[in-house]
Each structure stands twice: as C-alpha cells, then as structure tokens.
Design brief:
single chain, 491 residues, alpha+beta, 6-stranded mixed sheet, 14 helices, globular
Length: 491
C-alpha cells in the first residue's frame, strides 16, 4: 500500500507453484528456424518458448564454460538458432515469464541468481549498477568494488538498488553464496535427466522481502505468527536495522478488512475506476491490447472547459498508473484522454503519468500524444493479470464473461465465516454452494470443515445446491437458517 491505497497485489497458493525465476534442465522439443526460436520441455503443462536472442552465449552445459559468440544483446544479428541447439538436446534454462493464455512459459539460457544486494549472472562478464542509484560517486564506488571482488571469468553481476553504501564484507559474502549456488546447480544437473527442476524460485514471501523491503517501507504487517517469525529471522540476517518494522497483526478484525484490501481487489474486476475529481476511467482488456477511456463524469467544472478537462486528465494519469500496477496489466495499453487544445497541458498530463509510473517495478515505455490524442504505452508482462489469475471463463456465455475459480470461492467462504464468527453469537452455520465447489473442497481440502471449525469455533455444515452459479454461495445462520450472506461475503 502507498498513501493508504492498495497499489500492488501478489499472491501464492499451496496448490500452485510459480515458474518465474525457476531454473530447469530442459529438453529441446523442436527448433523452428522460421521464427528463430525453440520449444523446450521443462516438465510444465506447456513447452517453454526460447528465442535466439536469449542464446547469446555458446555454453558448454557440462562444464559451465562459456565462449563469446561475438554478438551483444544490442546487436540483433544473432547466429542462426539451428546452429546453436538441436532437437533432443538438454539445456539449462530459466523461466522469465509465466504461461499466459495459450502461451507456454518464456525461457532464457541467460541464467541470473538474485540475492538481497546482487544479481549474479554466471554467463556474463559485465558489472551493472541499478539505475535507481543516481549518485555518480556511489555508482563509481560500487562498480570499482565489484571489479575488485569478481574473479576472472567468474561471471557478471548487477548491483541492486538496496546496495547503496554496501561494504566489501557484505558484498563478498553474498557473491560467494550466489556463485556457490550456481556450482551446486551445475553439479545437480549431472545426475538428472531432462526435463527436471534444478532450482525453484524462493517462496513469494521470501522473494518479496529480498527484493522489496527497505527503509522506504514504514512497516510489514503479518497476521500469521509462524510467517512473522520467518520474516523476522530473515530480516535480522539481512537488514537488522529494519527488524522493528516487522509487526505481528493480532487484532480480531481480519487484516484485509482492517485496510479494505478485499474491496479494493474486487474493484479490479470491474471496468470502471472512479477519480477524485468525479470523473472515471473505463478499462477494456482484449487479446491484443488494453484500452483505457477517460471521462469527466459528474465533474463539469465552473467556467473554463480546458481547466475542467486538464483536472480530469491529471487525475486519470495517476489513477491509470495505479490501476496498471494493481491489476498487473501488461502488454500494449492505449489511453484515450479527453481532448486538450493546449500542447502545454498535454505535456503536463504526460509528465504526471510518468511520475506515477516511475514507482512501478515493471518496465514501462510511454509515447507522446498521437495525432488522434491517444497515449500508447507498453508494460512488461511477467505473469497473467490479477483478473486472469482469479477468474475463469464462464461456460454459460461461451467465454464472454468470467467466474471466480473454485479455490477463490473457497477462500471467500472462509473469510466470510471468519467475519461471521466475530459478529454473531449463533454458532450453527450452513453454507449452500454449487456442487462443483463442494467437490473441490472434498477432493483438495478434505480438512476444510475441521480447520474452519477450529479457527472460528463455529459448527459448519455444507450443502450442495445445483441452482447456484459456479461461484455463488449462501451463508445461513442458526437453526432458522437466516441468510446473512450479504453481511459477510466479500473478497
């Protein structure tokens, strides 16, 4: 959250594992010269996509040795992929993008191992410093330090943003740990047959703390004692001065309800987002791109129409940037702002958007206003959007609409029961739900009723109801079976 507003959502579930960041011993299924790419089996449902631009180094997979192909990343004249890899070959790859829609995961053979302060790149020879470290003398010091510590042919590194004022001892310690991890991966590879995982990315919580947590954050609030202890121990080891900012949340009201997280997440499933000025934006997601339309709505200003339009567009610029982060929308985005006559005002709106986009961890590129008054931009896509992750195609309208996944419905029921237990004296509860959701519970979460009963002190029973939609449920309280769904059911 930033300025008491939700700006980014990441989630992990025990029945799913993230692919991004994972390193695999893959088996080349096919090499396609026509698109200069290969499809590589890494053991996932769909084969991964490996483009020739991610094969800059001709690596001896058995020894880890590397030879320069003579082509840099900026030089797009790559060697032919059919000369570099063959069908049936084993190759070490890393996932850079989750499967999205009909596309499999995106792969690279340019392996990178992230740490708290450094990213180690075994197949490189360069030293990079995060662009967010702006002080020239500090950038120069860090680069010099890296070159002193890096052994010859020891790989390359990128120095991360949190590394400002990093000392030599910490630098050496982390580099040694990361390079040892790479040696272990190469050793493990010798005893495996492709496809096989070599190293999975750290858990979501570990990677969030590693990559994001710094003095810029006021606090981390955790509602699980177990996870609180895990985070606290990790923070003590990497940034002990920040340990007091890790807070265990133990109030009776749920953490999501306390900060309005659920309602904010549910708001991402609607097309409309309101602006402080009274205007609103409408987002439409298609296969090719996302369109965003800006409207003045109820805000009509006083006298000067240009001022009214400028105010609405400035509000929209900030809200569009926030919604892109919040909904995790990637790809091509086209923003249709309200037409402005003044070039000066168009520049103000564009600058406002760039200021807000600078807070986004995902790479974004924004163009100038086009002749049609549109702003085109791209945002790096790593995983499916929040909407795609938490919903499924609706069979009744042949894919025109979406319904919540069974796992999401079960979590909504769980949170509703927690809210009910805090506010109702009645302990008998009946939950009516679609047969598909009931089956999902019995098959995947057989201890659901026992666990919910233990945590809420409620006596909960389930009853399937084929008349309900796939993602609909009703909560009936007491022997009279009073319907209290509207009171307690939300995200």
């Amino acid at each position: 959250m930033e300025d008491e507003k939700l700006v980014e959502v990441m989630f992990d579930r025990s029945d799913q594992h993230r692919l991004v960041g994972g390193i695999y011993l893959g088996k080349v299924e096919a090499v396609i010269p026509g698109i200069q790419a290969a499809f590589v089996d890494i053991g996932s449902a769909k084969a991964g996509f490996l483009h020739v631009s991610d094969l800059e180094w001709d690596r001896d997979q058995s020894s880890g040795a590397r030879t320069n192909t003579g082509k840099g990343r900026r030089d797009r004249r790559f060697p032919a992929i059919q000369d570099e890899i063959k069908k049936g070959q084993s190759i070490i790859v890393q996932v850079t993008k989750e499967p999205i829609g009909t596309k499999g995961p995106k792969l690279t053979s340019q392996i990178s191992l992230p740490g708290r302060f450094l990213v180690y790149i075994p197949g490189s020879y360069q030293v990079g410093v995060s662009r967010k470290i702006e002080d020239r003398s500090e950038r120069s010091r860090l680069r010099k330090l890296a070159k002193e510590i890096l052994p010859k042919d020891g790989g390359g590194i990128i120095i991360r943003t949190v590394s400002e004022e990093l000392n030599r001892e910490t630098f050496e310690k982390e580099f040694k740990r990361l390079s040892s991890t790479w040696e272990e991966i190469l050793k493990k590879k010798e005893s495996l047959e492709a496809p096989a995982p070599l190293q999975r990315e750290a858990s979501l919580i570990s990677s969030v703390i590693r990559d994001l947590f710094s003095s810029r954050f006021e606090s981390i609030k955790v509602d699980s004692k177990k996870i609180y202890q895990e985070i606290l121990q990790y923070v003590k080891s990497i940034a002990p001065d920040l340990k007091d900012r890790v807070i265990l949340y133990d109030e009776s009201k749920s953490l999501f309800d306390k900060y309005g997280i659920g309602s904010e997440v549910e708001g991402t499933f609607t097309k409309r987002a309101m602006l402080l000025s009274g205007g609103y934006i409408i987002s439409e997601q298609t296969e090719a791109l996302v369109s965003v339309d800006v409207n003045t709505g109820k805000y009509i200003g006083k006298k000067d129409p240009e001022k009214t339009i400028l105010r609405t567009n400035l509000d929209a610029a900030g809200e569009i940037a926030r919604q892109l982060r919040l909904r995790d929308i990637g790809g091509i985005i086209v923003c249709d702002f309200i037409d402005m006559e003044s070039q000066k005002n168009r520049d103000k709106v564009l600058n406002e958007m760039k200021i807000h986009l600078a807070k986004d961890r995902a790479r974004t590129k924004v163009s100038e206003f086009s002749r049609l008054g549109l702003v085109e931009m791209t945002r790096h896509r790593v995983r499916p959007s929040l909407f795609q992750s938490l919903t499924l195609n609706c069979d009744h309208c042949e894919g025109g609409g979406r319904v919540y996944t069974p796992e999401t419905v079960v979590r909504k029921i769980e949170r509703a029961l927690n809210r009910l237990s805090e506010n109702e004296k009645e302990k008998h509860v009946l939950v009516r739900l679609h047969p598909g959701i009931a089956l999902n519970i019995f098959e995947k979460e057989p201890n659901f009723l026992r666990n919910v009963g233990r945590s809420t002190k409620l006596r909960v029973a389930l009853r399937d109801d084929p008349l309900l939609r796939e993602d609909e449920f009703r909560i009936l309280s007491g022997l009279a079976e009073t319907d209290v769904t509207s009171r307690y059911a939300s995200m």
